[in-house]
Amino acid sequence: MAKKVSEKKEMTDKQKKVKAILEKLQNLQGLLVQRYKIEQELEEIPKAILKDKEVLVRLKKQLEDESEVLEKRQLKVKDLRFQLHDAEDKRLHYEKNMEDAKTQKEYEVLDKAIKESILEEQQLRKDLLKEEKETAEQSMRVESHQKLIDGQAEEIRQKEEKIQSISDAKKQELGAVRAKIQDVLDKENKEESAVIGEELLFKFERIIKSRGKGIVSVGVLVDKDKKDKEEETEDGKGKEKIKAFICSECHMVLPIQFVNDVHRMDSIMFCPYCSRILFFDEKINDQYRNADISEGESFGVFADSGDDDDLNSIDDFDEGNDVINAEGDDDAVFEDDDAVFDDETAEEENELLNEEAAEFGENPEEFDENAEDEDEDDDMSDDSDEDEDDEDPDSDFDDDEDDDDEDDDE
Question: Would you tell me how many other CB atoms lie within 10 Å of the CB of residue 187?
Fold first, then answer.
């Protein structure tokens, strides 16, 4: 026998108040999501040129190293030029003294000194040319690094100007959104009834900031394999059966009592799994009222109410806020699922047995009765064999006793 889950009734003042708060939270959620999105974008904007700045820092460090190498080479070139100039002066001095040489020995000594000076000059010129070439190459590397740094700095400057422009626009947009939020709150505070409250607003904002959404609708899990043949849709197919009600965001199955509490709207209800505020939209509300629950089943896939503190850092509200935190038992959900699957498996096995019996051309019921009769015959034959086995040892034992008595008499 099926019965409706609930019927539409006139709402009480308390339920109207809760409904009004839920509607305000839904309207406020869009603005809060937009606000946190803009704030996140403002935090990410400076990171756009962070890598470019890091590259610029590395280039500057490389330029410093290359510049130090260039300075050392320039000093070495200067020193080689000084040594070459000194070697030329010594050679000229020896050549001048040779003109004044009076003895053969003096002439030979000066000639040797001149030759050594010439060799020294040649080596110094060779070293100088090599060092000047390397210095020129090093200077080109420094200039290349400097141009690269200048280009990177200019690119960063342009990006910073663009980012600053975007940031200013985002800040204006954020200011407008904050103003809208404040207007909604100011208007809401002027109303005597259906006030959200600072604590509820704080928790609501924290949920949105951490999870993206703070209030979501209850969803429906449909059992596509089970359809109501009596209620056919336009396409001629049976009406789909509702298997469970779930949180539309975390998709966890909600306890049936908790679903009833959410629909009743006596208080603000949080999802026991993801901590978001739950409500019924119009479509789900109609499905809830039209849902059939078989007596004795009570949506077996629902979890039983139990102890569960999995509210993900959402603290209990004060009694004055009139908020109930739902509790559920995850294990019960899976236990009920197993029970449903066991029943379905048993039905499938019975169908297979009936099909096997039909293959032999027999009535499935007669097939089962014949099988039972065969089992009874087997049991009776086994019992008769056991009785015969039990009688034989006793009869032999009695015969032996009679023979012994006759011997004693003799």
Answer: 10
In this structure, of 26-30, 139-143, 327-331, 349-353, the range with the lowest mean pLDDT score is 327-331
114 and 202 housed in the same domain: no
Q: What is the pTM of this model?
A: 0.48
Residues 210, 108: Cα–Cα separation, whole Å: 97
- What is the DSSP annotation of 109-124? HHHHHHHHHHHHHHHH
Of 218, 255, 243, the closest CA to residue 333 belongs to: 255
Which residue from 212, 216, 244, 239 is spatially nearest to 227, judged by alpha carbons? 239
Output the pLDDT for position 181. 85
CA gap 270, 281 in Å, rounded: 16
Decide if 142 is inside a domain: yes
Note every long-range contact of 66-74, with CB atoms under 8 Å and residues 24 or more positions apart, other chains counting.
66/138, 66/141, 66/142, 66/145, 67/142, 69/138, 70/135, 70/138, 70/139, 70/142, 73/131, 73/134, 73/135, 73/138, 74/135
342-381 per-position pLDDT tens digit: 444 445 555 654 554 444 444 444 444 444 454 555 555 4
The CATH number of the domain where 149 resides is what? 1.10.287
* pLDDT at site 271: 92
Question: Is residue 166 domain-shared with residue 225, that is, in the same domain?
Answer: no
Alpha carbon dihedral 55, 59, 60, 64, in 10-degree steps, equals 150
pLDDT (0 to 100) of residue 283? 74
276 lies in which domain range?
197-340
Split into its structural domains, the chain has a count of 3
Query: What's the pLDDT score for residue 383?
Result: 53
Q: How far apart are CA 278 and CA 288, in angstroms?
A: 14
Nearest to 22 by CA among 269, 246, 249: 269
Tokens of 171: 């800040």
255 and 329 share a domain? yes
Angle, helix 330-359 to helix 364-409, in steps of 10 degrees: 80
Residues 204 and 334 in one domain: yes
